Each structure stands twice: as C-alpha cells, then as structure tokens.
Amino acid sequence: MLNNAILFLLQAVLSILTFAFLLRFYLQLTKAPFQNQLAQLIVTVTNFAVKPLRRVLPSIGKIDLSTLVLAYLTQLVLSICSLWLKGFPILIAGHTVWVVIFGVALIGIVSISLSIFLYAVLIQAILSWVNPHTPIAPVLNSLTYPVLRIFRKYIPPAGSFDLSPLAFIITAQLLLTTILIPLENNLLSTL
C-alpha cells in the first residue's frame, strides 16, 4: 500500500515536471511572449534544472536541447521508478528491458507533447468564446498557431467559425487512443 502511494506521488510530480519542461521547450520554439504569469511560472519552476544543464548542453538554433533532454530524462526516471516500485527486477533484467524502458519514455514525451497542444487548443477555443482578450491569449496564439496553420490549409472556416481547432482535437485524441497508448501497452507487455 505504501508503494502505491509513493508511485502515485512520483507519477504526479514527475509528470508535472515533464509537462513543465516540454511546455517551456515549445514556448521557446514558437517564440511565445514570456511577459505573462504562465510563462514566468514555467520558467521559475524549471530554472533549477535548465540553467545548470545549459552550461553543458547549449541550444542549437531555436532548439533548446537542455529542456528537451530534461523532459526525456524525467520520463526515463519515471519509467524506471514505476517498474521498480511495481516489483520488476530492473537491476537483473536483460538488455531488451532497457530498450523497452527508453521506448516507453520516448512515447511518454510524444504523448505529453500532444497533450500540451491539445490542452492549449482547447483552452484557446474556450477563451475565444468567453474572453478573447485575456492576458494568456498571446501565449496560446503563439503556441497553437504552427499546429492549427496545418489544419487551416485544408479546412476552410464555416462562416465565422474556425473548425481547425475541432479537427486538431479529434486528430490528437485519435493519435493518442489508436497509436500511442496501444504502442506503450505493447512495449510494456513484453516485459
């Protein structure tokens, strides 16, 4: 029972931390404005690890490798600790187990990345109806524009309604439920 509580806390903390690292990565990649409270919160929460790693691992152009590597390492630690707390003998397992663990961590990064954009599009759509001039709107616009631009090429507006957020939400959910989650389950079933 104590293992379950520790596992829950570990999953909650490391998932939130991975989310924060990836959100910072995508905010920097899309050149979102950092003058609002959400962006400042993400920077404050992640600076403890990003600043020291940037000294060792510099950015390559627009790509901030330190935040991306930290997100992956956080998912990797989560995968290893989850298996260990569930009683899996990681230390005596073979090499194929480590390939599976690295794969599960990578799938976790892709899933959380997709979730970031999914939530951003959903929040942006809701705020556009309720309060389109909220202080977080520029951040959401910067974050979602590259993704929604792809959908806007193929889906014209229906009158004054932009249907691209709905198409993205459906596509993202479809990718999560038909590809990423089954792939992760298949990898974990090989252990």
TrEMBL record:
Keywords: Membrane, Transmembrane, Transmembrane helix. InterPro entries: CCB3/YggT (IPR003425). One of its GO terms (cellular component) is membrane. The chain crosses the membrane at residues 6-26, 63-85, 97-127, 133-151, 163-183. Belongs to the YggT family. This is YggT family protein. It comes from Methylotenera mobilis (strain JLW8 / ATCC BAA-1282 / DSM 17540). The lineage of its organism: Bacteria, Pseudomonadati, Pseudomonadota, Betaproteobacteria, Nitrosomonadales.
